[in-house]
Amino acid sequence: MTGLGGSGAAAPGDYVYFKSVVPLHKISIGSKLWRYYDFGPKAVQPLICIPGIAGTADVYYKQIMSLSMKGYRVISIDVPQVWNHHEWIHSFEKFLDSMNIHHVHIYGASLGGFLAQIFAQQRPRRVKSLVLSNTFLETHKFAAAMPWSPVLNWTPSFLLKRYLLTGIQDGPHEPFIADSVDFVVGQVETLSREDLSSRLMLNVNVASVGPLSLPDCFITIMDTNDYSAVPQQLKDQVNERYPSARRAVLRTGGDFPFLSRPDEVTLYLQLHMRRVGVEPRPDLVQGFTCGGSSGSSNDHKDGNSFDDRPRDDGDRSSGGDDREVEPSVSGSHDSDEPIPTSILLANTVLGTDNSVHHVSLLCS
């Protein structure tokens, strides 16, 4: 991957701050280069975020900041250059082994959700729960739509980027969705030809997700209701496969709700982690405010601090303006009533709202 890139627009202010305080890690395992962020108390079972074809580890920066501040450990990865699903499974397992991580919770969007399911199917003892967003169960439709996939390895980078970006809806967007698209387009510009071709190969290699040993109650399905590059038919198949999974419906958000609706996505991730039994450790995290000021910390060894400012020498830039977006009304699996907005978000973080305490219960 290239170290620099972007769409030419100014990077969001919170992303600039994130890059100044959260270190980017790079590690070679065999022939694979892994690029990832790892932030939050190491004593907590991690939530691993896997992006889609156009995403990088950076696209989850808002969740890394918010959840780590609450006492969760978040690892966001770039999918390395692997060329088939078998190679992905073995490479990801070696990555976890190198980190001395035995059990994980995975949040995957689009291709990332498919890869998460494939790994959970083949390595059931390691995956404790899943959050799936705008994803699919099989790749046949994508393979049929790309008859030229045999020549992917020889396709120039600019053609691969053009093809990839055609899947992102063009035209007028709500400002927060437009900003998320700008950010991701900037991230695509940082990807090498090998990065792009390997991800597209993962998306078109014919495969399907088999039955999972993971109970449905340890799965949350978080989809947007407005638009995504994944056809609705494929998203419906995911819902049919996991009928007892929790539903977290976002009325809007497009392909990248983790950027366009970060407060809602972070809330649902937090509720999911509590429901599957992962307790945060805020006592191991040094707090900070939006302005960058920090509080006290009881432990600097087991948690990361937003006051520690390691810098990455391979920075990425991206487009879009920094906006504070109030969460929209969303539906839940347990009730026909919509989840309240920012008041519930604040109460949930403080642990003062009894209406959401049921989500902390484990599957019976």
Describe the structure.
The protein starts with 12 loop residues before the first helix and ends in a 14-residue tail after the last helix. Helix 2 (61-69) crosses helix 11 (262-275). Strand 5, helix 4 and strand 6 (127-133) form a beta-alpha-beta unit. It is globular and about 50 Å long. A nine-stranded mixed beta sheet has the order 1-2-4-3-5-6-7-8-9, with helices on both faces. Mean pLDDT is 82; it is low at 1-7, 288-303 and 307-361. It has twelve helices and nine strands. By secondary structure, the chain is of the alpha/beta class. 34% of the residues lie in helices and 13% in strands.
List the helices and strands and how they pair.
Elements: H1 13-21, E1 25-29, E2 32-39, E3 47-50, H2 61-69, E4 74-77, H3 85-98, E5 104-109, H4 111-122, E6 127-133, H5 140-144, H6 157-166, H7 175-188, H8 193-204, E7 219-224, H9 232-241, E8 246-250, H10 257-260, H11 262-275, E9 330-332, H12 342-350
Parallel strand pairs: 3-4, 3-5, 5-6, 6-7, 7-8
Antiparallel strand pairs: 1-2, 2-4, 8-9
Helix pairs in contact: 2-11, 3-4, 6-8
Give the structure's gist in a few sentences.
With 364 residues, the chain is α/β, with parallel strands linked by helices. Helix content is 34%, strand content 13%.
Q: Low-confidence runs (pLDDT<50, min 5 residues)?
A: 1-7, 288-303, 307-361
Structural class: alpha/beta
The sequence of SSEs as H and E is HEEEHEHEHEHHHHEHEHHEH
Give the number of DSSP strands: 9
Largest sheet: number of strands, sense, barrel closure? 9 strands, mixed
Strand order of the largest sheet: 1-2-4-3-5-6-7-8-9
Q: What is the C-alpha radius of gyration, as a whole number of Å?
A: 19 Å
Please report the number of helical segments.
12
Helicity range of the residues?
A: 25-40%
Q: Tell me the β content.
A: 5-15%
**Overall outline:** globular
> Averaging pLDDT over every residue, what do you get?
82
Distance between the termini: 45 Å
